[in-house]
Structures are given as C-alpha cells and as structure tokens.
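User: I've been trying to design a sequence by hand for this structure and keep getting stuck. Would you show me what you'd pick, starting by listing the structure so we're on the same page?

Assistant: Good idea, let's start from the same input. This is the structure you sent:
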C-alpha cells in the first residue's frame, strides 16, 4: 500500500547551492560601490553566477522585527534567519520552511523594508541585518512610521483584501477528503442533528482519477460521485460548497501535451515541459503567458457555470523549478515565490469578470500582492501541541505582512503514525479514517479556530466535532456556536482591513505601545475589541497579557479588569480565553 509521504523530508534541494553560499557568506561584489537606501547599504553581488543584491543595516537595541510572510518561528524575527523560498513543507513543523513568503519586514522602532521581487530572499536579522536578493531587477521600498502607518502604506501599494459575504465568516468543514456528494450530505446532516454549525463544506476529490496519487487538476468532474446539481443539494441542506484546485497538470496526459504544444506551460531551456521540484510528473501552467492566463480563466468560468461552487480552494503553487524559463524568457527563479500570486490573481480576475468578485478564495501559497485573493491558511501542520503554537505564530506573522484574512487547519492536518490515505483510495480502497487527534488538543484547536478570522477544519482523519468523545465534543460545538455572536466584530474588522490594511487578526505589536504587551506573542486582538489567548498546552492553563480596562468573557470565563499586566487563566473543556472589551459609559 503506497502512502502519502508525510515524513517532513525534503527531496533533493534545487537551492542547495544558494543555502550553502548563504551559510558560508560566499558572494562576490559586482560593483564595489554601495548605495544608501533609507538606512540600508545596498551592494550589487553575484552568487554562484546569479546576480542580485545585498542590503545591510545595523540593528537597533531592543527593537522587534515582524513580517516576512508565514514564519512558523515568528512573529518576532529579531535574531533569526529566514529563507524566503516558497516550499512544499511535507508536514514539517518547528523548522523554517513556509509555503508563503513575503519580502516585507518592519520594526517597532518605526522603519520598514519591502522588496519587489518574486525571487528567493534570504534574511539574517541578528546584530547587523543582512538581506540577500537573487533578482538584479528588484526594487526596494522603505517607509518610516508607526506599525499601522507602515501597513497602510504597504497595502495601499500592493493591494488589500476585498470583503466577502457573511456566510464565509461561519464554519468551514473539510476532510482530506470526502469521497462523494452523498457523503458530504450525510456529514452536514450529522452536524445539523448535533446543532453544530456548518456553513461551508469543502471537497478535494471531485475530479476523475485519484487526487492523492496525481496531485494535479484535470477539470473533469466525476459524475458517478458528483452528479449534476450536487452543489444545489448541499445548499438546500444549508451548507455552501467549496471546491479544490491546483495549477499543475499531469505530464502523461493529452491535456498536458496540448498545453505544451501551444506554449502554455513553463518550459526548460531545452524546450521540454518543466516539472515541479518535488514531483517529476507535474507540469506547471505558465501564468506569465497571457494566453495561458486566458486558458486558465476559461476553465474557471466553465467550472463555476457547471458546478456552481460558492468558494474555491487554490492549493499548491510552490516548487517552481529555478532553471525553467518563463514565457518572456526570464529564469523561473525570478518567479519562484510570485508564481502563486499570479495563479491566484488570474482566478480573481476571471471571477470578477463574471460578476463573482465576492466569491471567497482559500489559498495556501503566495507572496507580495497575494492578499487580494482574500484568505490564506498556513498549510499542512501536524496534529501536535507544538504545531498548533507554530500555526499561531505563522498566522500572526502573516497578518503582520499585510494579509487581512488568515487561518489554519483546525485539529491539524495529520497525526504521525495514524493518519494515512492509501493511493488506492479512489480506486476502490478504503480511507480508514479515525478521530486521530488527541481529544484535548482537538477541542483547544477548535476553540482557537472559532476565534480566528476564518474557521476551517481539515485533515487526514475525522475533523468533525461529532467524531470526538465528551466533554471535548461539546466544548468544540459550544465554541462554534459562540462564533455566531462575533460575526459583527469580524465584519467590522474586515471592512477596516479593506480601508486601512490593518489585519483582522492583530498581533499585540500592532495594538499597544507597552513593551511587555508588544511581546505577548501567544495572543492577539481579533478586530478592535476581542482579545484571544489560545490554550497551547495540556491542562487548560495559559498566561496572557491583559490591556487596561474591563473585559467581558465570551466563552465561560470570569470578567477581567484592572491595569495592564499579566494574568493566569485556567479553563475547563468548555471555556476559553476570549474576551470582549467593555466600552466605558458615555
């Protein structure tokens, strides 16, 4: 039985030369002169025959640096190194691998640096900040101001997330994967019977073939499992429908051959179709080619017309081979990180032309500008306590990078040793799903999800609350019911994001000048008035930093008030540290 490889090991690394050069400081100056850009010394360099730039700036005592996209070791990057290369992480946790990297950082001392490039960027943020950019055509933007002012300027220049319908603030339920429309309908009915909210249900495996063997898109609906009108049936049951896509086509198909014949795929220098770094049978649509973009958009329009989904999940788009060639002749190294943004923006444009600009998109990878496809999640995290803490760190770091709507797989994506999907799953095999997440971890992750900008369950096992024992089942369902009461907060915060660039999930460094509060990295504000401190360890205990004022509990805690400072909170399975600011009487 062939299983999905979730070992966390990375295949032969096409960037090994870069990582070695970075570690050893091996680059040579192309121009001995260095220019100054708002506090940064900038010098043209060469790294193993590839031109780029090195920027340097001394660190300020006591400052904290934020941003860079999805940093699982964030959100304060001071003293760390980051390799901004979009990667398929293969479920790795606790290491500096990320699906979504953004060459944009800012300091609480009042400066920012944003780099216009789709190429890899490497950062050492220790005593002397050093940034290596492998793009001779990169441009640099700097800003001075408060964190809110910096984010306003950055998102005004690079784009802001549009608003979306109220139902998208509800509960998204998913599993890798539901196998038929009948199964999806049964899940919705089961959740409804338990009075568990479910507003959206997502399916990966709607196509013919086996998505867990191919990991590609063929656009062919499997009508035996998803008959005509299947999304209407689910909507009638009260659940909107989300469908999975990715930008890869299987190399051994007529589809791939036809696309290559018309020049719509990324190609290698010898003219052959390029394949992803991690799987040699996947070709990549070339989104730098207007004709390829038009073809993609036609497929989106046809899919939306025939299946009538309410949302789309735009997965993958990492692992672009650096030596491939784009339509305009550039090395694909220069679009390694921005490839996903091009894919998502092409989809946004197709929907807008059909009057579907408000359709929610749920995306994994990206870079600068991807925030216009409004929601991104932090990918395939293990179902462990440490990985939940990492997901929080990545969400906060992504929020600090200009992304208004961020989220995570509630429950974690997989539990090592227990969650396996056989490659024969859609060829008559069995899924062998179990409620594989530790129950206490499951409820704490469900509560964290309920008070995140977007609430979405997903993984290689049962993620529905009804699959878990008491009291954890009721604790999860209570949190999801409580989410119904905060939609107004979410709507207002989302509107602020479209107007100002301030994210919905706000790291404390964005909302307080208190030195201790700024470093309270285990909590966040959800909009202006909700304070959330996820429980990241067994036993229901957390320590949180409380801002001045009165704070009314949302889910089973006593009211808190007083001067700003640290407080200890203990929660039973049905309670959670989420508090609403009590406005003073006029």
């Amino acid at each position: 039985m062939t299983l999905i490889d979730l070992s966390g090991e990375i295949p032969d690394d096409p960037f090994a030369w870069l990582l070695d050069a970075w570690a050893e400081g091996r680059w040579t100056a192309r121009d001995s002169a260095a220019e100054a850009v708002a506090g940064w010394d900038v010098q043209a360099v060469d790294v193993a025959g590839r031109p780029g730039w090195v920027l340097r700036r001394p660190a300020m005592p006591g400052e904290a640096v934020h941003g860079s996209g999805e940093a699982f070791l964030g959100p304060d990057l001071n003293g760390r190194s980051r390799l901004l290369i979009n990667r398929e992480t293969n479920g790795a946790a606790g290491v500096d691998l990320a699906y979504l990297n953004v060459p944009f950082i800012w300091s609480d001392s009042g400066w920012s640096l944003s780099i216009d490039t789709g190429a890899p960027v490497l950062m050492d943020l220790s005593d002397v900040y050093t940034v290596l950019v492998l793009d001779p055509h990169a441009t640099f933007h700097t800003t001075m101001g408060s964190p809110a002012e910096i984010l306003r300027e950055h998102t005004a220049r690079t784009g802001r997330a549009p608003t979306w319908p109220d139902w998208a603030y509800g509960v998204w339920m998913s599993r890798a994967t539901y196998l038929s429309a009948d199964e999806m309908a049964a899940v919705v009915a089961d959740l409804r019977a338990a009075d568990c909210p479910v507003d959206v249900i997502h399916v990966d495996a709607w196509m013919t073939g086996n998505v867990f063997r191919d990991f590609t898109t063929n656009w062919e609906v499997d009508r035996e499992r998803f008959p005509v009108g299947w999304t209407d049936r689910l909507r009638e049951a009260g659940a909107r429908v989300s469908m999975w896509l990715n930008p890869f086509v299987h190399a051994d198909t007529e589809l791939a051959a036809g696309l290559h014949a018309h020049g719509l795929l990324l190609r290698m220098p010898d003219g052959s179709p390029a394949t992803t770094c991690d799987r040699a049978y996947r070709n990549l649509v070339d989104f730098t080619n207007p004709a390829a973009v038009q073809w993609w958009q036609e497929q989106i329009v046809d899919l939306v017309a025939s299946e009538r989904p309410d949302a789309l999940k735009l997965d993958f788009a990492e692992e672009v081979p650096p030596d491939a060639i784009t339509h305009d002749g550039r090395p694909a190294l220069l679009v390694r990180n921005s490839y996903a943004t091009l894919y998502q923006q092409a989809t946004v444009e197709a929907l807008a032309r059909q009057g579907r600009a408000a359709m929610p998109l749920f995306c994994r990878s990206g870079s600068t500008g991807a925030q216009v496809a409004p929601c991104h999640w932090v990918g395939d995290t293990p179902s462990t306590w440490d990985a939940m803490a990492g997901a929080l760190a990545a969400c906060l770091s992504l929020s600090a990078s200009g992304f208004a709507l961020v989220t995570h797989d509630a429950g974690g994506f997989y539990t090592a040793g227990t969650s396996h999907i056989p490659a024969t799953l859609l060829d008559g095999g069995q899924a062998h799903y179990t409620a594989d997440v530790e129950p206490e971890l499951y409820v704490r992750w469900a509560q964290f999800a309920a008070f995140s900008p977007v609430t979405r369950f997903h993984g290689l096992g049962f993620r529905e609350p009804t699959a878990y024992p008491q009291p954890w089942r009721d604790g999860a369902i209570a949190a999801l019911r409580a989410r119904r009461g905060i939609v107004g907060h979410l709507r207002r915060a989302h509107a602020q994001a479209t107007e100002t660039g301030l994210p919905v999930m706000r790291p404390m460094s964005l909302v307080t000048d208190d030195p201790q509060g700024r470093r309270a990295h285990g909590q966040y504000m959800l909009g202006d008035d909700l304070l959330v401190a996820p429980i990241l360890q067994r036993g229901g205990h957390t320590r949180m930093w409380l801002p001045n004022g009165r704070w009314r509990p949302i889910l089973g805690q006593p009211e808190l008030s007083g001067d700003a400072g640290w407080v200890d909170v203990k929660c039973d399975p049905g309670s959670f540290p989420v508090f609403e600011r009590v406005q003073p009487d006029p």
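That's my pick for every position. To get oriented when you compare it with your attempt: The chain has 13 helices and 29 strands. The chain has a mean pLDDT of 93.
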